[in-house]
Write a structure and sequence with these properties.
With about 80 residues, this protein is mainly alpha-helical. Helices cover about 80% and strands about 0% of the residues. It has one domain. It has 3 helices and no strands. It starts with a helix and ends with a helix.
Length: about 80
Amino acid sequence: MIGFIVAGIVIGFIARAILPGRQRLGLGMTLLLGVIGSVIGGTIANVLGFVAAVVVSIALLAVGEQRGIGGMGDRDRLNP
């Protein structure tokens, strides 16, 4: 919980520094927006990371299947 608060403050200040112009937000609102931004950004990163892991796994399985890796080359003969 403390990590989210610290990350929220840091992320909020970074966002305020990047956004042009003057913002009339206090520390509390900066903290809240930073925490919300980090949660949303973290969720998106986790979802994209999961999708990337599935895509890479499928690609590796296809390559392994194509090259006959796995030692199960005779499995087709076992099933009638």
